[in-house]
Amino acid sequence: MKIKLMIYSFLAVAAFLFAAMSNAYSVTIEIFYLPHPPAEAVVRDVESVIKEFKGVAVKKYSFESPESRKHIAKYNIKEHSPVMIFVNGKNQFSLGKRQVILKNFQKGNAFVPMFEGNWSYEDLRQILKSAAGGK
Questions:
Q1: Is the pLDDT of residue 1 over 70?
Q2: How far is residue 125 CA from its own chain's centroid?
Q3: What b/e sequence results for 74-92 when a residue is b if at least 16 CB atoms lie within 10 Å of its CB, and e otherwise?
Q4: pLDDT tens digit string along 92-111?
Q5: Which among 31, 55, 45 is positioned nearest to 128, based on CA atoms?
Q6: Residue-range definition of the domain harbouring residue 100
Q7: Residues in Cβ contact with 45 at an 8 Å cutoff, skipping those fewer than 6 apart
Q8: Greatest C-alpha distance within the chain
Q9: What tens digit of pLDDT does each residue of 14-47 get?
Q10: Contact indicator for 118, 91 with CB cutoff of 8 Å
Q11: Number of domains into which the chain is organized
Q12: Which residue, of 2, 34, 41, 117, has the greatest Cβ tally within 10 A?
Protein backbone atom coordinates (compact mmCIF):
# COMPACT_ATOMS: atom_id res chain seq x y z
CA MET A 1 0.00 0.00 0.00
CA LYS A 2 2.86 2.39 0.83
CA ILE A 3 4.51 1.71 -2.51
CA LYS A 4 1.28 2.47 -4.34
CA LEU A 5 0.95 5.77 -2.43
CA MET A 6 4.58 6.65 -3.21
CA ILE A 7 4.01 5.95 -6.92
CA TYR A 8 0.87 8.10 -7.00
CA SER A 9 2.68 10.88 -5.13
CA PHE A 10 5.60 10.72 -7.55
CA LEU A 11 3.26 10.85 -10.56
CA ALA A 12 1.34 13.79 -9.10
CA VAL A 13 4.56 15.73 -8.48
CA ALA A 14 5.87 14.87 -11.97
CA ALA A 15 2.61 16.00 -13.58
CA PHE A 16 2.70 19.26 -11.61
CA LEU A 17 6.31 19.95 -12.61
CA PHE A 18 5.62 19.14 -16.26
CA ALA A 19 2.62 21.48 -16.28
CA ALA A 20 4.64 24.23 -14.61
CA MET A 21 7.50 23.84 -17.06
CA SER A 22 5.28 23.80 -20.13
CA ASN A 23 3.56 27.02 -19.05
CA ALA A 24 6.72 28.79 -17.92
CA TYR A 25 7.05 30.66 -21.21
CA SER A 26 4.02 31.72 -23.18
CA VAL A 27 6.06 33.79 -25.66
CA THR A 28 9.29 32.93 -27.46
CA ILE A 29 11.34 35.68 -29.05
CA GLU A 30 14.07 34.82 -31.51
CA ILE A 31 16.41 37.67 -32.39
CA PHE A 32 18.71 37.37 -35.39
CA TYR A 33 21.36 40.07 -35.70
CA LEU A 34 24.62 41.07 -37.28
CA PRO A 35 27.31 41.24 -34.58
CA HIS A 36 28.09 44.92 -35.15
CA PRO A 37 27.59 47.78 -32.66
CA PRO A 38 24.50 49.40 -34.27
CA ALA A 39 22.61 46.08 -34.49
CA GLU A 40 23.81 45.00 -31.04
CA ALA A 41 22.43 48.28 -29.63
CA VAL A 42 19.01 47.45 -31.09
CA VAL A 43 19.20 43.96 -29.56
CA ARG A 44 19.90 45.50 -26.13
CA ASP A 45 16.96 47.88 -26.53
CA VAL A 46 14.69 45.02 -27.61
CA GLU A 47 15.80 43.03 -24.55
CA SER A 48 14.88 46.03 -22.36
CA VAL A 49 11.36 46.02 -23.81
CA ILE A 50 11.09 42.24 -23.36
CA LYS A 51 11.99 42.56 -19.66
CA GLU A 52 8.72 44.47 -19.17
CA PHE A 53 6.85 41.18 -19.73
CA LYS A 54 6.72 37.93 -17.78
CA GLY A 55 6.86 34.51 -19.40
CA VAL A 56 9.04 35.49 -22.37
CA ALA A 57 11.89 33.26 -23.52
CA VAL A 58 14.59 34.97 -25.58
CA LYS A 59 16.93 33.26 -28.02
CA LYS A 60 19.58 35.26 -29.86
CA TYR A 61 21.35 34.18 -33.02
CA SER A 62 24.21 35.95 -34.77
CA PHE A 63 23.87 35.88 -38.55
CA GLU A 64 27.61 35.22 -38.70
CA SER A 65 27.70 32.27 -36.31
CA PRO A 66 27.85 28.77 -37.83
CA GLU A 67 25.70 27.54 -34.91
CA SER A 68 22.87 29.83 -36.09
CA ARG A 69 22.59 28.35 -39.59
CA LYS A 70 19.85 25.84 -38.77
CA HIS A 71 17.78 28.57 -37.11
CA ILE A 72 18.27 30.89 -40.08
CA ALA A 73 17.20 28.05 -42.39
CA LYS A 74 14.11 27.42 -40.23
CA TYR A 75 12.79 30.86 -41.28
CA ASN A 76 14.28 30.69 -44.79
CA ILE A 77 16.12 33.98 -44.19
CA LYS A 78 18.06 34.85 -47.32
CA GLU A 79 18.15 38.64 -47.28
CA HIS A 80 20.79 40.81 -45.67
CA SER A 81 19.30 42.51 -42.64
CA PRO A 82 20.96 43.88 -39.50
CA VAL A 83 18.17 42.65 -37.20
CA MET A 84 15.18 40.31 -37.53
CA ILE A 85 12.85 39.54 -34.62
CA PHE A 86 10.39 36.65 -34.51
CA VAL A 87 7.64 36.43 -31.88
CA ASN A 88 6.26 32.91 -31.56
CA GLY A 89 7.58 32.14 -35.03
CA LYS A 90 6.26 35.24 -36.81
CA ASN A 91 7.83 38.57 -37.71
CA GLN A 92 4.88 40.13 -39.56
CA PHE A 93 1.97 41.55 -37.59
CA SER A 94 -1.15 43.62 -38.17
CA LEU A 95 -1.45 46.54 -35.77
CA GLY A 96 -4.67 48.32 -36.58
CA LYS A 97 -4.50 49.14 -40.27
CA ARG A 98 -0.69 48.86 -40.36
CA GLN A 99 1.35 45.84 -41.36
CA VAL A 100 4.50 45.73 -39.20
CA ILE A 101 7.56 43.65 -40.03
CA LEU A 102 10.11 43.24 -37.24
CA LYS A 103 13.26 43.55 -39.31
CA ASN A 104 16.03 46.07 -39.82
CA PHE A 105 16.42 49.05 -37.50
CA GLN A 106 13.34 50.59 -35.95
CA LYS A 107 11.67 53.48 -37.78
CA GLY A 108 13.59 56.73 -37.40
CA ASN A 109 16.80 55.08 -36.19
CA ALA A 110 18.62 53.81 -39.27
CA PHE A 111 21.94 55.33 -40.12
CA VAL A 112 21.59 53.66 -43.54
CA PRO A 113 18.15 54.48 -45.03
CA MET A 114 17.81 51.13 -46.83
CA PHE A 115 17.91 49.39 -43.44
CA GLU A 116 15.13 51.45 -41.84
CA GLY A 117 12.27 49.24 -40.76
CA ASN A 118 8.63 50.13 -40.27
CA TRP A 119 8.42 49.12 -36.60
CA SER A 120 8.93 50.89 -33.28
CA TYR A 121 9.56 49.76 -29.72
CA GLU A 122 5.95 50.66 -28.96
CA ASP A 123 4.86 48.32 -31.78
CA LEU A 124 6.97 45.58 -30.18
CA ARG A 125 5.28 46.25 -26.82
CA GLN A 126 1.84 45.90 -28.43
CA ILE A 127 2.86 42.67 -30.14
CA LEU A 128 4.26 41.22 -26.90
CA LYS A 129 1.21 42.31 -24.92
CA SER A 130 -1.04 40.56 -27.41
CA ALA A 131 1.16 37.44 -27.55
CA ALA A 132 1.35 37.25 -23.76
CA GLY A 133 -2.42 37.47 -23.46
CA GLY A 134 -2.41 41.04 -22.15
CA LYS A 135 0.01 40.30 -19.29
A1: no
A2: 12
A3: eeebeeebbbbbbbeeebe
A4: 999 999 999 999 999 988 77
A5: 55
A6: 25-131
A7: 121
A8: 73
A9: 444 444 444 456 999 999 999 999 999 999 999 9
A10: no
A11: 1
A12: 117
